[in-house]
Amino acid sequence: MSEYSHEPTRGLPGVLPQDEQILWQSSPDWKHMAMTALHIRLSVAYFAAIAIWLATQGDAASAMAVSLLGICVVGLFALFAWGVGRTTVYTLTNKRLVLRIGVALNKCINLPLSEIKSANLKMLPSGHGNIVLDLKGAPRLGYIMLWPHARSLRFVTPQPTLRAIPEARAFAALLFKTTQAVQPVAPVEATPQRSRDVPLMGVPA
User: Fold this and answer.
1) How far apart are CA 20 and CA 173, in angstroms?
2) In sequence order, what are the beta bridge partners of 36?
3) What is the pLDDT of residues 2-21, one digit of tens each?
4) Could you count the other beta carbons within 10 Å of the beta carbon of residue 50?
5) DSSP structural state of residue 153
6) Is 94 exposed, middle or buried (0-12, 13-18, 19+ CB in 10 A)?
7) How far apart are CA 175 and CA 162, in angstroms?
8) pLDDT for 72-116, tens place per residue?
9) From CA 196, how far away is CA 122, in angstroms rounded?
10) β 186-187/197-202 pair status
11) Could you give the CA distance from residue 67 to residue 128 in angstroms, rounded to a whole number?
12) Residue among 15, 19, 13, 24 nearest 177 (CA)
């Protein structure tokens, strides 16, 4: 028996209504999650810089201690990212997006497609990507509640983010098509300055 054996349908809090169907399900790639959401490379660089500086000052013992501390911290980040990848399920139905998240305490967050104001795609290596959602205002979601499935540093108006999903371009096209069937949304052309953060769609003004 697993911790998710109570789910009537994998990744969902209840049985789907007869007029609703699952169109797509996926989970984050934990390695890309560690790199982009937890910024593990910055942690490695930080501890390495301190250790090198201490070594150049002739303090080999402190340099070794900092290196060991860095290894422990980076290891914990990697373990957490692995746990996020193992426990997270993103689900798209013809009516909503469902985020089953939480490593220690799992929860399901329902995002009706009718509440999506806009969406952006940020591509990562190997065809993975992040989908950032801007909601119309309801439901209100807390940053701590969403993290790490939230756009970085958006504390006042948190933006749910589907992180490190595989075949991100194909899912982005499916999300646009499915949302368009629920409410009037239009594709948005990317500008050269934001080529890495590509607007997918928005509600016409």
Assistant:
1) 19
2) none
3) 555 567 788 888 889 999 99
4) 16
5) T
6) middle
7) 12
8) 999 999 999 999 999 999 999 999 999 999 888 888 999 999 999
9) 6
10) antiparallel
11) 31
12) 24
Q: Whole-angstrom distance between the N-terminal and C-terminal Cα of the chain?
A: 49
Q: Looking only at Cα atoms, what is the longest distance across the chain?
A: 70
Q: Which long-range contacts (CB under 8 A, 24 or more apart) does 125-128 make?
A: 125/32, 126/32, 127/166, 127/167, 127/168, 127/169, 128/29, 128/32, 128/164, 128/165, 128/166, 128/168
Position 195 pLDDT exceeds 50: no
pLDDT averaged over the chain? 87
Across the range 28-39, mean pLDDT stands at 93
Write down the residue that tokens 């305490």 correspond to.
105
Backbone angles phi, psi at 133, to 5 degrees: -110, 135
Q: Which residue has the tokens 């119309």?
A: 136
Instruction: Quick: pLDDT tens for 140-185.
Output: 678 888 999 999 888 888 899 999 999 999 999 999 999 999 888 8
Mention every residue, 6+ apart, whose C-beta is less than 8 A from residue 83. Answer: 103
Print the SS3 string covering 54-77: HHHCCCHHHHHHHHHHHHHHHHHH
What kind and span of H or E run contains 194? none
Q: Count, in order, helices (H) and strands (E) of the chain.
A: 5, 9
Q: Where are the beta strands (DSSP E) in the chain?
A: 22-26, 89-93, 96-101, 107-112, 116-123, 129-135, 161-165, 186-187, 197-202
Q: What global pTM score does this model have?
A: 0.87
